[in-house]
TrEMBL record:
<keyword id="KW-0001">2Fe-2S</keyword>
<feature type="domain" description="Rieske">
    <location>
        <begin position="10"/>
        <end position="106"/>
    </location>
</feature>
<protein>
    <submittedName>
        <fullName>Nitrite reductase (NADH) small subunit</fullName>
        <ecNumber>1.7.1.15</ecNumber>
    </submittedName>
</protein>
<dbReference type="GO" id="GO:0046872">
    <property type="term" value="F:metal ion binding"/>
</dbReference>
<keyword id="KW-0408">Iron</keyword>
<keyword id="KW-0479">Metal-binding</keyword>
<dbReference type="Pfam" id="PF13806">
    <property type="entry name" value="Rieske_2"/>
</dbReference>
<keyword id="KW-0534">Nitrate assimilation</keyword>
<dbReference type="InterPro" id="IPR012748">
    <property type="entry name" value="Rieske-like_NirD"/>
</dbReference>
<dbReference type="GO" id="GO:0051537">
    <property type="term" value="F:2 iron, 2 sulfur cluster binding"/>
</dbReference>
<dbReference type="GO" id="GO:0106316">
    <property type="term" value="F:nitrite reductase (NADH) activity"/>
</dbReference>
<dbReference type="GO" id="GO:0042128">
    <property type="term" value="P:nitrate assimilation"/>
</dbReference>
<dbReference type="GO" id="GO:0004497">
    <property type="term" value="F:monooxygenase activity"/>
</dbReference>
<dbReference type="InterPro" id="IPR017941">
    <property type="entry name" value="Rieske_2Fe-2S"/>
</dbReference>
<dbReference type="InterPro" id="IPR036922">
    <property type="entry name" value="Rieske_2Fe-2S_sf"/>
</dbReference>
<dbReference type="GO" id="GO:0016705">
    <property type="term" value="F:oxidoreductase activity, acting on paired donors, with incorporation or reduction of molecular oxygen"/>
</dbReference>
<keyword id="KW-0411">Iron-sulfur</keyword>
Length: 108
């Protein structure tokens, strides 16, 4: 699993600010993160950098289940692990997320 160990949690907004299946960019401690709300209510946070050699933002992708579909390169990324699915290869840095009293907290 590629989720960073839990460090200090920072508020990223309220749960109502995140739309299901659509990414939102949040900046925490100088890092630009892509935050996704899956249709089952699970929230994922990742570096907003596509692992493709040409790069690009991840927040523009669409979530289905726990997978992110990147519209730039047609890559499928598992949001639980950060791993790009075969036949492509790569990995996205994921961050621990928790929700308390309607606030989304991300560990950076």
């Amino acid at each position: 699993m590629t989720t960073k160990p839990a460090g200090t949690y920072y508020p990223a907004g309220t749960i109502d600010e995140f739309l299901p299946r659509i990414g939102r960019v949040v900046e925490i401690q100088g890092k630009q993160l892509a935050v996704f709300l899956a249709s089952d209510g699970t929230i994922f946070a990742a570096d907003n950098r596509n692992p493709h050699p040409k790069g690009g933002p991840l927040a523009e992708g669409i979530v289905s289940g726990h997978y992110l579909y990147d519209p730039l390169y047609d890559w499928k990324i598992d949001l639980s692990t950060g791993l790009v699915q075969a036949p492509d290869q790569g990995q996205v840095q994921m961050y621990s997320v928790k929700v308390e009293n309607g606030t989304v907290w991300i560990a950076v």
